[in-house]
Amino acid sequence: MSRQRCRLFLMEEHRYGKELNVEPYPKIPLRFHRPELDGILQVEALLDTGFDGALILSRALCNFLSERVIRPDGFEELDAAGIGIPCNLYEANIQLARRWFRVKTHAPQLGDLGTILGRVLINQITFCLRGASSKLHICR
Asked: What is the mean pLDDT of the chain?
């Protein structure tokens, strides 16, 4: 049986998130920009292949945006296991793996899901999850 080597070029390496009583999870830093903001925000997002959208914003980021943006760009209800979560929508520029993307972000009106990166963005980048070593690699 022959073993094939990975021929991808490593661009970035990140450590998994670790919390007490929680399995380590893949997370990645990203940059968030909207014209109303005085600069670019850097946040960390959990990778979630179960989320169809681009990005869910944490409660802290939702509060920060609501203080600076006159009104959301829209409204949509997310379906989380049959439970509807009302969300404000914001068009935003997201930098991930040295590339910029213009995407629709979801800002839940209730609760705090954290900042979650979904498949709209995950499918644009080559990720290599190294669970045994708790590392996430971005490759090309």
From this structure: 90
Between CA 50 and CA 43 the distance in angstroms is 20
Q: In the predicted model, is pLDDT for residue 134 greater than 60?
A: yes
| Amino acid residing at 7 | R
What is the CATH code for 29-139? 2.40.70.10
Instruction: List C-alpha distances in Å: 128 to 10, 46, 48, 78, 136.
Output: 9, 14, 14, 28, 6
Burial 65-104 (b: 16+ CB within 10 A, else e): beeebeebeeeeebeeeeeebebbebebebebbeeebebb
Domain spans, the chain: 29-139
Residue 59 in 3-state DSSP? helix
